[in-house]
UniProtKB/TrEMBL annotation:
Pathway the protein acts in: One-carbon metabolism; tetrahydrofolate interconversion
Family in the record: Belongs to the methylenetetrahydrofolate reductase family.
Pfam families found in the cross-reference section: MTHFR
Cofactors (names): FAD
Recorded superkingdom: Bacteria
Protein name: Methylenetetrahydrofolate reductase
């Protein structure tokens, strides 16, 4: 079970991220979307789903938003009523969207769930509830809830303290972390180095990966604050098939971070998503997901073979 893997600090946790449908859709339309999402994942061995809770991030970025912000179905409702709890779910909660009574109701109802609390996207926001207030309420009301936090490796390059932010959230009850989409391997590696140096155990860091098939998707990713190195841009777009190249790049980055994390004593996992709603990019995210699963399974097989070979030496 996903919750057990988190509690035990396991490496190789694999999740798939979904954004619920627009709240303006009819129940039948939302059910149809949910069915398609589940059909894409049929037969794929994942540990669980990440169900996002969107918030308007316009105050964080003065540039025009590439895609219009729309309200979506609450993630916990989408997981239960539309996805039928088919998979264990990590429920994102943008806590600033809720007042204390609304958030208390969530904590009381979903006390045994897995959730990631997300704070305000900008200091200019006026949230109904702060992240620290949400942490405090969780401690008072929902001790059985498995809590996760947000980690932004690219922020480490600018402020050099993302490792300390994670450590602080760990003290406030976070047991695992999910990052923003990774497209800058050097910055992410530096974060891993500094986080490993803190010696914090049993805390999975789940890196997010998403395909990028065209300039429009790239523009939106950058608007969201995702750091994309020039090297990554060249590797993706200096080709006849940017989407395929982005999948290959993400696989290379995950394999490096996964194995590098092992050498550093940090449990590394993956969350795959499609930021775009384009069918080809959604399909590419499924291809990426399968590739990451293969990397984890092959590594596990190689480690098992190595242990068997080591043990057999004593029988000679």
């Amino acid at each position: 079970m996903l919750k057990d893997k988190i509690k035990q600090g396991k490496s190789g946790i694999i999740l798939y991220g979904l954004t619920p449908p627009k709240i303006s859709l009819s129940s039948d339309e939302a059910k149809e979307i949910a069915l398609k999402q589940l059909q894409r994942l049929e037969g794929i061995k994942i540990d669980g789903l990440v169900i996002y809770d969107l918030q308007d991030e316009s105050n964080r970025n003065s540039n025009n938003r590439t895609f219009e912000f729309v309200r979506t179905i609450n993630p916990e409702i989408y997981a239960k009523d539309y996805l039928q709890n088919r998979y264990e779910a990590v429920i994102y909660k943008a806590v600033g969207n809720y007042d204390r009574d609304e958030f208390r109701d969530f904590l009381l109802t979903y006390n045994s769930s897995i959730s990631v609390f997300v704070g305000a996207s900008s200091a200019n926001d006026t949230p109904k509830l702060s992240l620290n207030e949400a942490y405090k309420m969780k401690k008072e009301i929902a001790n059985s809830l498995t809590l996760g936090g947000i980690c932004i490796p690219e922020r480490h390059m600018k402020k050099h303290n993302e490792d300390l932010r994670v450590a602080s959230k760990r003290l406030k009850g976070c047991e695992f972390f999910i990052t923003q989409a990774v497209y800058d391997i050097e910055t992410t590696k530096r974060f891993l180095d500094d986080f490993a140096a803190l010696g914090i155990k049993n805390t999975p860091i789940i890196f997010t990966f998403t395909p990028c098939g065209n300039e429009k998707t790239l523009e939106f990713m950058q608007w969201l604050g995702i750091s994309i190195s020039e090297l990554s841009k060249r590797r993706i777009f200096d080709s006849n098939d940017p989407l395929e190249n982005s999948v290959k790049l993400s696989l290379d980055m995950f394999e490096f971070l996964y194995k590098y994390g092992q050498t550093k004593g940090v449990s590394v996992g993956a969350n795959v998503e499609s930021i775009s709603t384009r069918k080809v990019e959604i399909e590419a995210s499924i291809k990426l997901l399968k590739g990451i699963i293969s990397i984890v399974e092959n590594d596990s097989l190689e480690n098992t073979k190595s242990k068997i070979q080591s043990a057999s030496r004593f029988d000679e």
